[in-house]
Amino acid sequence: MSLDQKELDEFRAEVRAWFEENKPADPGFLLPQSFMEVGSDEQFTFLRDWQRKVYEAGYLGLAWPREYGGGGKPQILQDIATREMVRQKVPFLTNTIGLNWAGPLILHMGTEEQKKAYIPGILNADDIWCQGFSEPDHGSDLGNAQLKAERDGNEFVLNGSKIWTSLGKHAKYMILLARSNPSANSKYEGLSFFLVPMKIPGVEVVPIRKLTGEYGFNQTFFTDARVPESCLMGRENGGWQVAMATLAFERGAVGGQAGGHAMMSKDVSQVLALARAAQRNGRPAIEDPLVRDRLVQFIMEEKSFALNSARANIKPLVVEWPGSIAMSGKLAATEYQRRLNQFALSLQGANAAYYVGDPNAYERGQWQRSYFNSFSGTIGGGTSEIQHNIIGERVLGLPKG
Amino acid sequence: MANDKRPTIHFSDEQAQLLEVATSFAQDKFPLNKARARVAAKEDFDAAVWKEMASLGWLGVAIPEEFGGSGLSLAEVVTIVEPLGRALAGTPLVSTTLVAQALLKAGTRAQQAEWLPKICEGAVGALALIEPHGDWNLGHLTAKAERPGDLLVLSGTKTFVTDAASADLAIVSVAMDGAPALVLLDRQLLGAAKVEREIVIDETRRSYRVNLDGVTVPSDNLLDPSRTPDTLKNLDEAACLLLAAEMCGGASGVLVTIVEYLKTRKQFDRLIGSYQALKHPTVDALMAIDGARSHLYYAAGIFGDAVENEIAVRMAKALACDALAFASDRAIQFHGGFGFTYDCDAQLFRRRGIWCEAQHGDAAWQRKRLASLIL
Ligand SMILES: Cc1cc2nc3c(=O)[nH]c(=O)nc-3n(C[C@H](O)[C@H](O)[C@H](O)COP(=O)(O)OP(=O)(O)OC[C@H]3O[C@@H](n4cnc5c(N)ncnc54)[C@H](O)[C@@H]3O)c2cc1C
Known about the structure:
The structure holds 2 protein chains of 2 kinds. Chain A is an alpha+beta fold. Chain A has 3 domains: about 5-125, Acyl-CoA dehydrogenase/oxidase, N-terminal domain (Butyryl-Coa Dehydrogenase, subunit A, domain 1), CATH 1.10.540; about 130-250, Beta Barrel (Butyryl-CoA Dehydrogenase, subunit A, domain 2), CATH 2.40.110; about 270-395, Butyryl-CoA Dehydrogenase, subunit A, domain 3 (Up-down Bundle), CATH 1.20.140. Helices cover about 40% and strands about 15% of the residues of chain A. Chain A has 12 helices and 10 strands. Chain A has helices at about 5-20, 40-55, 75-85, 95-110, 110-125, 240-250, 270-275, 290-310, 325-345, 365-375, 375-380, 385-395; strands spanning about 130, 150, 155-165, 175-180, 190-195, 205-210, 215-230, 230-235, 280, 285. In chain A, α7 (about 270-275) packs antiparallel against α8. The radius of gyration of chain A is 22 Å and the shape is globular. Chain B has 3 domains: about 15-125, Butyryl-Coa Dehydrogenase, subunit A, domain 1; about 125-225, Butyryl-CoA Dehydrogenase, subunit A, domain 2; about 230-375, Butyryl-CoA Dehydrogenase, subunit A, domain 3. Chain B has helices spanning about 15-30, 30-40, 45-55, 75-85, 95-105, 110-120, 185-190, 230-260, 275-300, 310-335, 335-340, 345-360, 365-375, and strands at about 125-130, 145, 150-155, 155-160, 170-175, 180-185, 195-200, 205-210, 215-220, 265, 270. Chain B has a 3-stranded mixed sheet with strand order 1-5-6. A 3-stranded antiparallel sheet of chain B has the order 2-3-9, with no helix packed on it. In chain B, β7 (about 195-200) and β8 (about 205-210) form a beta hairpin. The model of chain B has no long low-confidence stretch (mean pLDDT about 95). Chains A and B meet through α3, α7, α8, α9 and α12 of A and α1, α8, β11, α9 and α10 of B. The complex binds flavin-adenine dinucleotide.
């Protein structure tokens, strides 16, 4: 089905109107900025209800197959809806792991049964998903994961712990990478990938307080937790390939996500407003030449992201380093967020030292908080350093370290 | 910024074709050792290659068909300039294109009819806009034209006039009656000026200081004064666009130089590219180039748009300056002792970068202009 410009414009207008009308009012408490920061039940309930509402309105999973609860429509419609959500700064869709990487993975390589069982609940937010990749001793070195999965007949017995589990408290399922063969030839060959139910005996989720002072992620302990072999995704001991496919979805290097935004990113227009409000030498900070220079740099950089996506679709302009733009998107955007938030603090002058909770903090201290939270992007999902390695090796062909 | 629609990059079939042809032309005619031969050469440019470029129709790409060109736009010229920049080709393509643009904007019918067909066939154009004070503001003019009767008497000095010793025509900016004016000098009038070779940082270029004192020019050689301010603005923007293309090309070229060395040079029994202290900045260079190229092709695609034009080209130039400066600076460092030598290609790219930054404003200058346009 191909749509002409008029139909697309009409759809955009419809979506715009719907979000303008249905955008939730300020709940009176600070909302998290991404799925990695959902810390309280009231935040979670609010966000789950919001996702459900967006899905029921037909603006989520638009391009996923109908038989699993999707809309069966062209991807471009979902892209329009997603963009509108970003533009109107509506709350993000909280089942991020399900919508953006577990779900696409299941659609990509799951069995018919798995698709039927899991996809609808991902879309309507009945079933929240979390990710069990990182461990206390192995994070960047994901291939070294050691949580044990021992076969016992047609079951696996899980022992060990996963850490930094975002949404762990609320999740019904986890995508889990575990060691099923400790004596394999290489560390990568002994791993298996599971879709694990969280509410089973032997699984315990313990919240961890994060740098902002709030709660947000967890440590998940497994003690003789038993799962049937039907929970395997892919081959037994073939988990590394599945994990790599998952990361490709997670980093946006491959398409197929349900849509909707995963993060309330700041943009430079918000910082411009701040620069007009803040003072330097009795004048608006935006008149200071150095402030202006930085602002222009941020504006150019932010525009690069949209222009890079546009150029990525023009074949003759991406012949030399194919994949470069897709592979570097996460690194570019998250480092940008961190620097932009940091600059927003410096603009506040002495008031940069206020923090969330003080009535004098600028905009409820949201910039202080979002500066700290921006590290979730530069650390989570593969640190910026690891991203540099990946781009250097896979795009530029540089030797591994 | 959260716009309704994402910006699109307009990229024509002609651009795609030209990019492909120019890329293989550049590889063919300008291997890097050619750039070195240029350094040693006496001539302003390689006349044989220039002839070929003319016969490919490249000098008339953005000239209307009625004057013998192909009636496309600067967007198509960008796709030629970028690959040539990558190969560090030293040709009068950019200056000649800009001279043609000046004639199209403000030339009289007679000037256009005389010169545009000649340019399509290979006449070399030179631009004389810069002055010894070095100010990037093109309206800051101390060279003068006085008009006693029917003649213009010129005075003052212009600098960084490329290929002036062999150019067929030059466009010179001067102050006249308190306003900027553009004057066309043909080969013979140029010959009446004092033309001295300059020693410049980009050794693939031939650049001259032109002393205009006492040069007398028929007033027919004046470009339309009413259109001069707009034309100077347009020339500045067109130059930013083409220089950004040249620099994006150069940055891509030097990135390959870095990557090749990092994949072959060993120290401590390891390829140096495996060291993150080298690998990570190389990735940063790649990302800087990606951003600059996206801005470049966006600016090329909308060139001529009344509102966005200046913003887009200045952004493209600012980012291209930074990308080439960073990549070529790191290229020197990452070649170690060899990087310090004249033989290492890294210095060629660094020199080209500084030359292009010095033409029509570096990154900080562009950002300052941008601040007043967008904040
Ligand atoms: C907010 C947040 C939410 C998260 N949510 C989840 C989740 O839901 N599920 C999950 O599984 N994980 C989650 N993570 C974990 C995240 O993926 C890891 O923190 C990350 O991969 C880094 O691992 P690490 O914490 O063990 O740090 P380490 O790997 O120990 O890294 C420490 C430092 O060393 C650097 N480093 C490590 N190796 C290299 C190398 N080869 N080259 C250069 N530098 C290197 C790193 O960049 C970093 O700066 C989350 C993290 C955060 C911050």
